[in-house]
Amino acid sequence: MLKINGLHARVEEKEILKGIDLEVKPGEVHAIMGPNGSGKSTLASVLAGREDFEVTDGSVQYMGQDLLEMEPEERAREGIFLAFQYPVEIPGVSTTNFLKTAVNQVRQHKGKDSLDAVAFLKMMKEKMKLVDIDQSLLSRSLNEGFSGGEKKRNEIFQMAMLEPTLAILDETDSGLDIDALRIVGNGVNALRNQDTATIVVTHYPRLLEYIVPDFVHVLYNGRIVKSGSKELALELEEKGYDWIKETVDAAV
Amino acid sequence: MSKDNQILEEFTQSDYKYGFESNIEQESAPKGLNEDTVRFISAKKNEPEWMLEWRLKAYHHWLTLKEPTWHNVSFPQVDYQDIIYYAAPKQKVSPKSLDEVDPELLDTFKRLGISLEEQKRLTGVAVDAVFDSVSVATTFKDKLAKLGIIFCSFSEAVQEHPELVKKHIGSVVPPGDNYYAALNSAVFSDGSFCYIPKGVRCPMELSTYFRINAANSGQFERTLIVAEEGSYVSYLEGCTAPMRDENQLHAAVVELYAAKDAEIKYSTVQNWYPGDKNGKGGIYNFVTKRGICAGDNSKISWTQVETGSAVTWKYPSCILKGDNSIGEFYSVAVTNNHQQADTGTKMIHIGKNTRSRIVSKGVSAGVSQNSYRGLVKVMKRADNARNFSQCDSLLMGDQCGAHTFPYIESDNSSAQIEHEATTSKIGEDQIFYCLQRGIGEEDAVALIVNGYCKEVLNQLPMEFAVEAQKLLALTLEGSVG
Questions:
Q1: Nearest CB partner across the interface for B430, out of A81, A88, A105
Q2: A123 is in which domain, residue-wise?
Q3: pTM given for the model
Q4: Is the residue at A248 inside a domain?
Q5: Domain map of chain B by residue range?
Q6: For residues A87 and A174, what is the distance between their CA atoms, to the nearest angstrom?
Q7: DSSP assignment, residue A204?
Q8: How many domains does chain A divide into?
């Protein structure tokens, strides 16, 4: 589904990704972990097509297409979803209205008819249960005045509505308490199936207690320095990142 | 070229959608303005002597005035002798029904999306369509007449209801009020007249579309709305003009009169030709709009969505004379390319416990200049007067300008006046967020701008709010800052 080869990217003059290789197959959950500043969020942003980052080398294949040639909205319509670390506020635009626009543009792209208000509302009601989100929240301006937890839940709700092929969660756990974490984890799990894949970007291993990954990768200084199974996450939980840093730095 | 610039470029190349010209024979006054022009117009309209005298007095006063220069707009000197002051479609007899109206003229309206038949049937809106200077067809008149409501062209009102016109004309905007008001008073061609009798709630939105068609013909309409005690009316004015190279002058006067417990809601959607992307052509829109809350507990609410005109000079105002009266001003002003807008309101608090609310949303793109200018004045007698003003500016790109000129004058220490102002740019983060959800760039801008203007758009009658939203999207096609 996704094949990243030797990906280099920089912001302004600073190189952040220094050669990433990663392959994600349908049905898999990959966790990207690493200390702060290792390039995790940059990787998520580059995959989503954010313009602040310049890809200087490498390639990304997504469903047989050259992902780097695609516009951000095209990537989204082709099934890539990014749950933002810091979801933005859009005053005066309700989540409902925003999502109706998004869902219908994605449907249009796939050659499907737009959903009318009734069908859309029905779909919304179903998906709301997944993340335990209140309808009153959805009629308010998008993310405006939402608590940290509400914003993150709203991200997962949007993900449920858009039914992505590849979901990328960028530090969705940051700022969440245990209950919110469980709700978010349950939501993501409910959406997992054999045709979709998930990349979970996180600093803390605790989210992985709820979303159990098939693979764990440790990103440090712009490279994946260690990959393993879910046990790697447990090891990180115990030991922190310092031992990895030391190993890598010693090898240089 | 960065993507933003590319999009701005695309935006500046979008063409005016309403630029076409109707080929209808015109009957016109000779170019220029003198006493004879005024007499010509008055005679054409078969006006009574008092009306002519009123016009002439205004004309002579106009001669003593100078064009204002205090506004934050600049444009070449208007040659008032190079304008045709009266142009009417030639017609043998005035039409009694739509069937008798020139089909090409009706087609013009259709292309503007305001098919009279359609509106009659679907929306229940009574439309008084002003085509250049003569009212073409007035619908729903009979239904309104049963309630005692008068809704007709201004010329007709002068003939049929002279006592009402005589009583109210110039009572809110005196002929000598300002340069453009004086000019209008001398040469006004037509417009709408609306009278709601005591205790009547007008059952439908009253609507007028103005359209400037003839080359070099200024349009000087005049609207007068009188709401008697305890009555209510909601009125909508929408405007479009075909594409022209020469700048066309538009100097309208609107007067609203609200008696005790009466309420007038006046909404405008204006999308006159703004000129091309190099700033050539476009309408000069110099309008005086003012309402008086003459009686206690009366209310006047202005809502405007301004997207057109090369130059806009316009301050719909409220004189809050009656105790407990309320004035409101909700405005969205969008400028792009070389457009210049200097718009706002004046709230004059005279009565006790009077309240006013100002919500102004400016959106600037291209190299346009967008100014809010507002006055809140509290007179000595106006105990416990209250005002709340909010002026927000949204910038797209880095070559446009947004300015705010709030004036506050208070002669009563019990007054409470609040003013809030913000300036922001459309965030790249907001755009990217939309893109990431599969929403295209243009739709993203439209969504964000509509959200930003929501508080104002919500004030519009439902069907027009939808129109206004579409218009905003159209005007801002491809613009990102």
A1: A88
A2: 2-183+192-229
A3: 0.80
A4: no
A5: 24-425
A6: 12
A7: S
A8: 1
